[in-house]
Amino acid sequence: MTLKECYEAMGGDYAGVSSRLPSEKMIQKFVLKFLGDGSYDLLCRSLEAQNYEEAFRASHTIKGVCQNLNFVKLMDSSSKLTEALRNGWSDEAAALVDQVHADYKSTVSAIQAFQEGLV
Fold this sequence. Notes:
This protein is mainly α. It has helices at residues 3-10, 14-20, 24-33, 39-48, 52-69, 72-85, 91-118.
């Protein structure tokens, strides 16, 4: 799988990230670093503990990272969740959590498939 195919599989914008980051090698570096980012785990733990301030911060961080890397699908859902959590828990936030989980798993699966092709 190429990096461009990875972006297609996750619902990302490869052309957008290519216009900002100077080389494919740099894009690859940051895409692979995403796998080690702890923001999603923090989001899950915070939601489980009903710590919605921390969940807000975690979803905001996910949104920002995704915005920088043009992970459009996950950026959109995490952005909506961030706004829903801005003032605490709500029915809207509850409805968005499953979408963020699905988009995160899709993004990670695409990156892992890309990573396996590098070996």
